[in-house]
Specification:
It is a single chain. By secondary structure, this protein is an alpha+beta fold. The protein contains six helices and eight strands; from the N terminus they run E-E-H-H-E-H-H-E-E-E-E-H-H-E. Strands 1-2-8-3 form a four-stranded antiparallel sheet. A two-stranded antiparallel sheet has the order 4-5. Strand 1 and strand 2 form a beta hairpin. It is globular.
C-alpha cells in the first residue's frame, strides 16, 4: 500500500483512510470533509466498551426483551424482573446498571449479550450518539465507497 492511500477493507465495500488510531476519529479532518461530500462515513466499532460505561438508559424494545431473555434462557418475566428498570417517564423499560453505572451485561470490555444486544446499542454511534462521544469512543471512521446503485 502506498503511504496515505486509502485501503479497501476486504469484502466490506469500506475504505479505511489511513492510520486510524493516530487520528482518533480514523480520518484526518481534511479526509473526513472530502469524504463526506463523496461518500458515507461509517464508524466501525472497536468493541472498547466505553459507550457501555456512559451514564444513561439503554432503552429496550419488545423485540430486545424477547431476544435477550431467549439468549439467557430466561422467561421474559424473569428477565424483566432481574435485569430491567422502569424509565423515568414511565414510558418503557431500560437495562439496569452495575454499581458505578456500567451496563449490567458489560464484563470487562466484553458484552455478555453481544449477539443479541439491544437495538439502541447496535445503533451506536452511527444511528445515534451523544455530545462528547468522540472523546470516549474508539470507533474508527471509515469511508464507504459509493456504488452505482446508491
Amino acid at each position: 500500500m502506498i503511504e496515505n492511500e486509502p485501503e479497501k477493507i476486504a469484502g466490506t465495500g469500506v475504505v479505511a483512510t489511513g492510520d486510524e488510531k493516530s487520528h482518533g476519529a480514523g480520518c484526518s479532518r481534511v479526509e473526513l470533509a472530502a469524504a463526506t461530500t463523496k461518500a458515507n462515513i461509517w464508524y466501525a466499532c472497536q468493541r472498547c466498551g466505553n459507550c457501555c460505561r456512559w451514564p444513561g438508559f439503554v432503552r429496550l424494545t419488545e423485540a430486545d426483551i424477547a431476544a435477550i431473555s431467549r439468549f439467557l434462557g430466561l422467561s421474559e418475566d424473569t428477565f424483566i424482573q432481574s435485569y430491567t428498570r422502569l424509565r423515568p417517564r414511565r414510558d418503557g423499560l431500560a437495562l439496569i446498571d452495575q454499581e458505578g453505572g456500567a451496563c449490567v451485561f458489560l464484563d470487562g470490555i466484553d458484552c455478555r449479550i453481544q449477539s443479541v444486544k439491544p437495538e439502541q446499542c447496535r445503533g451506536f454511534p452511527n444511528a445515534w450518539n451523544f455530545p462528547g462521544w468522540r472523546d470516549v469512543c474508539e470507533a474508527i471512521a471509515v469511508v464507504r465507497e459509493e456504488t452505482p446503485d446508491t
